[in-house]
Design a protein that fits this description.
The chain has about 325 residues and is α/β, with parallel strands linked by helices. It has 13 helices and 9 strands. Bound molecules: S-adenosylmethionine.
Length: about 325
């Protein structure tokens, strides 16, 4: 699998996204994270609602406040916050994806809450359109992982918060997926010297299409070049106080509704689906060999997943 440069926020984007005309963020959130399967969509929503509930529990919203949710996607956090806090909450939903903003706007109209919402198309690194010291709470979930200049984003969060205002965020920490992929590459490189294991090579090509597989690619990829400690440092460097970080690691059985859904879905918005990898980068013999081993494992629930999420809260000093 060749990894190619792109102009989204990462230099590291696989070829499926280089050639696709569809907005990768919209495409992933609305389709490829659950492959359009209703059972899988429910599983994914149960998981993401759990993260959103944790972000909102520490956001400490009360009626009358203004919340800015950065990288709002479908509006998971924004609409939950309105549901929890009531009709006097004002919410600013910001996105780089115009299609996701339009989607969230339609949902707000359908639910009768559009009078509480402002929709802004902007990058987390430059929240133009939101005045200084104008919001009570900033939330964000699974967004900074895709932002090239995270420190600039934290600077913007600080700028738009009123004195005493609060950030509450949750970010996936994906360094370990990349480290495991680097490990696969090292094993393949070592085997090249002594006769290759074809399965190891296929595993590496699968994972390397979705995560960086060298230390230098990790360093240039916004998804994998930061840890929870870096998030703490970015908050400190931008003058936040009362900083609290919790890293939650859950190792659990990998659940997916079927093999078909598994290969039609992707683990993050910038990754190609396994189906794309199998069709475009494997020969039919390689595909058969790979499926023969992986499919029974997936169908028996024999794989586990390591979930690492960093939850950060901090306040802007008054
Ligand atoms: C994994 S989704 C999470 C969406 C939403 N926060 C949620 O919890 O469901 C990542 C979102 O970040 C947005 N995004 C990516 N890069 C961004 C950036 N530089 N500034 C603002 N939003 C960004 C994408 O458009 C996408 O909606």
């Amino acid at each position: 699998m060749r990894l190619q440069a792109c102009g989204v926020t990462s230099k590291w984007v696989p070829s499926e996204h280089k050639t696709s005309k569809l907005d990768p963020w919209y495409k992933w959130l609305i389709h490829s994270r659950h492959a359009g399967d209703p059972v899988e969509r429910r599983l994914v929503l149960d998981e993401t609602e759990h993260y959103a509930d944790k972000v909102l529990a520490t956001a400490q919203l009360v009626p009358g406040m203004t919340l800015a949710d950065i990288g709002s996607g479908e509006g998971l956090i924004a609409f939950k916050a309105i549901g929890n806090t009531g009709p006097s909450l004002q919410v600013i939903l910001t996105e780089i994806s115009a299609s996701l903003l339009a989607h969230a706007r339609q949902f707000a109209i359908k639910k009768g809450v559009s009078n509480q919402c402002i929709f802004l198309e902007c990058n987390a690194e430059n929240l133009h359109g939101i005045p200084d010291a104008s919001v009570d709470v900033v939330t964000t979930r699974a967004v900074l992982a895709y932002v090239a200049d995270k420190k600039a984003a934290l600077r913007e969060f600080h700028r738009i918060l009123k004195p005493g205002g609060r950030i509450s965020l949750a970010e996936p920490i994906m360094m370990d997926e990349a480290r495991a992929t680097c490990g696969l590459k090292a094993a393949v490189d070592a085997e090249d010297l002594n006769g290759a294991d074809p399965l190891l090579d296929l595993m590496h090509r699968w994972k390397a299409a979705q995560f960086p597989d060298t230390v230098s690619k990790m360093a240039s990829c916004p998804m994998t070049n930061f840890s929870e400690r870096d998030l703490v440092r970015f908050a400190q460097d931008n003058g936040f106080a009362d900083i609290h970080m919790e890293l939650h690691i859950d190792v659990r059985p990998f659940q997916v509704s079927s093999w078909e859904v598994f290969i039609a879905s992707a683990p993050h918005p910038l990754a190609p689906t396994l189906e794309f990898i199998l069709s475009n980068h494997f020969t039919s013999t390689e595909r058969n060999q790979f499926e023969k081993v992986l499919r029974p494992l997936i169908e028996a629930g024999g794989l586990s997943v390591d979930d690492r999420v960093a939850y950060l809260t901090a306040t802007r000093k008054s």
